[in-house]
Amino acid sequence: MSRNRFREIKRNLHLVDKKDAPHTLDKMFKVRKLCDILIKKFNQWGVFHENLSIDESMVKYFGHHPAKQFIRGKPIRYGYKN
């Protein structure tokens, strides 16, 4: 896929109606519905054991967003924590 095609799709892809934005304090409200659907599907089809271990990771991001985190002393200091 070309860069311009990707940017065109990204520009027109919306997951939530902008009318709901002023009524919430959730910083990730634009992707919250998608996350809820994915979590429901993962729980439905996932196989979970007692000894399940989940590792955290940091997604590098240098733009401006209120959910971005800074962790001093880490290789990736600015970004979103997964």
Characterization of the model:
The chain has 82 residues and is of the alpha+beta class. The protein is 33% helix and 11% strand. It has helices at 3-12, 29-45; strands at 58-60, 69-70, 78-81. Strands 1-3-2 form a three-stranded antiparallel β-sheet, with no helix packed on it. The longest helix is centred in the middle third of the chain and has 17 residues, at 29-45. The protein starts with a helix and ends with a strand. The mean pLDDT is 83.
Write the layout of secondary structure elements.
Layout: H1 3-12, H2 29-45, E1 58-60, E2 69-70, E3 78-81
Antiparallel strand pairs: 1-3, 2-3
GO molecular function, one term: sequence-specific DNA binding
InterPro entries: PGBD, PiggyBac_TE-derived
Pfam families: DDE_Tnp_1_7
Characteristic key phrases:
PiggyBac_TE-derived; PiggyBac transposable element-derived protein domain-containing protein; three-stranded antiparallel β-sheet; 82 residues; alpha+beta; PGBD; sequence-specific DNA binding; 3 strands; single chain
Brief rundown of the structure:
Residues 1-81 form the PiggyBac transposable element-derived protein domain. By secondary structure, the chain is of the alpha+beta class.
Helix content: 25-40%
- Let me know the average pLDDT: 83
Could you give the count of β-strands?
3
Our Rg estimate from Cα atoms comes to 17 Å
* Helix-strand category: alpha+beta
Trace the largest sheet across and list its strands: 1-3-2
> What order do the helices and strands follow?
HHEEE
Distance between the termini: 27 Å
Could you describe the largest sheet, including whether it forms a barrel?
3 strands, antiparallel
Poorly predicted residue ranges: none
Number of helical regions:
2
Q: Quick one: overall form?
A: extended
Report the sheet-strand fraction: 5-15%
